Each structure stands twice: as structure tokens, then as C-alpha cells.
Amino acid sequence: MKSSPIRTFARLAVANRVSGIYLGLVGGAMAVAAAEPLFATNPDASLIWVWPALFTFPAFGFVAWLGEGGWGGDAPAWFFIGGIVVSALVQSLALGAVWRGLRGRRGDQGSRGRLSAAS
Predict the structure, then answer these.
(1) In angstroms, rounded to a whole number, what is the distance separating the alpha carbons of residues 40 and 32?
(2) Calpha distance 48→23 (Å, rounded)
(3) Which spans are transmembrane here (predicted)?
(4) 29, 112 Cβ separation under 8 angstroms
(5) How far apart are CA 46 and CA 50, in angstroms?
(6) Cβ distance 13 to 93 under 8 Å?
């Protein structure tokens, strides 16, 4: 029975160890960045948002390029925060696909080894 494309997407992007750890890292960085202005009094508090952007690089590079082209470097905060979220999901999907590919290869070799040993 084939699973739906949405279920496959969710399984690759969210429901595996590697993607979960990555999304947790990005989510934690975003939570710290959102809480930083509440506790910091220095004018450099907004620079904390560099970390979530770096965790989602290279996909976030495309979002920054769109922001530069669309708003001339003065893009609104919602655009960059949404870009971080979308970039994290895209990269999580890629990590999930690589993880599934590596596990699938390892599983295929193991089953072939058992079949040939039984023969």
C-alpha cells in the first residue's frame, strides 16, 4: 500500500531522528533569539537572529536574496522569520531524504547478506 505524498513529506521532514534534532536546534535558536530582547538592554540584542539564519544556511541565502531584491535590504521581520521557518523545513526534508537513503542502503545490504548466507 502506497502512502500519500503528504504523509511521505511529513515522515521525511519531521518524523525521523535527524530531522527532529535539526528542527529542535533551529527552534531552540529561534526561542533564544525571541527571548533575548526581553532580558538584554544593549543595542546589539537584535544580532542574536544571526544564529537561526546561520543554522538554516544555505537555504536561507535564497530568502535573504529575495528580501534584498524585493525590499532593498529593508525587508520586514515577518519575512525573515518566515524564511527561517521555511528554510528549516526544506533542509529538514533534505536531511530526512538523505537519512532514509542511507538507512535504505544499509538495510538492503543486510538483507542481501542474510539471503546469500542462507543459500
Answers:
(1) 11
(2) 18
(3) 20-40, 47-66, 78-99
(4) no
(5) 8
(6) yes
pLDDT 10s digits, 72-118: 878 898 999 999 999 999 999 999 999 989 888 665 555 555 554 55
Report the pLDDT value the prediction gives residue 116, as an integer from 0 to 100. 46
Judge whether 80 and 88 are in contact, CB under 8 Å.
no
Q: Which residues contact 16 (CB under 8 A, 6 or more apart)?
A: 96, 99, 100
Say how far apart CA 2 and CA 92 lie, in whole Å.
Answer: 22
CA–CA gap between residue 91 and residue 25 (Å, rounded):
12
Taking the C-alpha atoms of residue 89 and residue 79, their distance in angstroms, rounded to an integer, is: 15
pLDDT in the model for residue 107: 55
**Residues 41, 45: Cα–Cα separation, whole Å:** 7
Instruction: Give dist(CA 13, CA 11) in Å, integer.
Output: 6
Give the global pTM: 0.78
Q: What are phi and psi of 13, to 5 degrees?
A: -85, -25
- Per-residue pLDDT at 106: 60
Number of domains in the chain: 1
What cell does 48 get?
Answer: 542574536
